[in-house]
User: What shape does this take?
Amino acid sequence: MKLEQVVPWGRSLADYINMFHLTRSDFRAFILDCAGGPSSFNTEMTQQQCRVISCDPIYQFRVEEIRQRIGETYPIIIEKLAQNLTKFVWQEIDSPKRLGDLRMVAMEKFLADLELGIAEKRYIFAELPDLPFGDRQFDLALCGHFLFTYSEQFSLEFHLDAIREMCRIAKEVRIFPIVENFTGARSWHLDPLQAELREQGYQISIEGVNYEFQKGGNEMIRVCKVS
Ligand SMILES: C[S@@+](CC[C@H](N)C(=O)[O-])C[C@H]1O[C@@H](n2cnc3c(N)ncnc32)[C@H](O)[C@@H]1O
Assistant: This one.
C-alpha cells in the first residue's frame, strides 16, 4: 500500500458504540478493530482499561507521514461532502465543517497515541484477508467502513476470505455499514455472501443500529462460525 492511495478518516468511541451496538459486556471483551485506520476507538478504550488491538496497513507509516496525509486529504473530503449533502443525514452533526471538526478530534487522539500503541503492540500493521493472530484469540472483531463500503474495489471472493479470516480469529464479527460508499445502496455482495457463508456453517444476522450518517447506512452484519 502507498500512502498516496490512502484517504485517512477515523471515527470516535462514541461512534463505534452506536455503529456496532456495543454493550456493557462488550467492554469486557478482547476486541480486534480490523481496518481501524485513524479511529480513536483503541485510544479511548485503552484509557478505560479495555483490551483492544487495532490492525490496518496504514500502521506501517510514521505518525508524521499519516498526519501529513490527513492534512492533504481533509479539505478534499469536506468538499466532497459539501457537494453531496443530500446523501447524508444532517441532524446532530449539522454541517460538513462540524463533521470535519469531530473527525479531526478523533484522528488527533489516534495520532497522539500511535507511537505508544505500536510499542505496546496495540496497533499492528496487517491487512485482510490474512491476519497475524491465533484462532479465536479475540472475543469480538469489528470492521467499520471498509468491507461492503468499498464493494466496487474489493470482490465478493475478497469479502468472503476477509470475513472467514475474522471469524477464525474472533468468536464474533460485526461489520458496519453494509451500504457502499456515497451511493448508499446495499452492497451487491450481501446476498451471495450470506448464501455462501450460511452454506459453510456460519451464523449471520443483519441488525439495525442507532447510527445513520450515510443515508441508509444504519445496519450492521453480525457473523460467527458455529463450531
Ligand atoms: C475509512 S477507514 C475506516 C477507519 C475506521 N474503521 C472507522 O470506521 O472510522 C478504512 C481503513 O481500511 C484500511 N484498509 C485498506 N485496505 C485494507 C485491508 N486489506 N485490510 C485491512 N484494512 C484495510 C485503510 O487503511 C483505512 O484505514
About this structure: The longest strand covers residues 138-144.
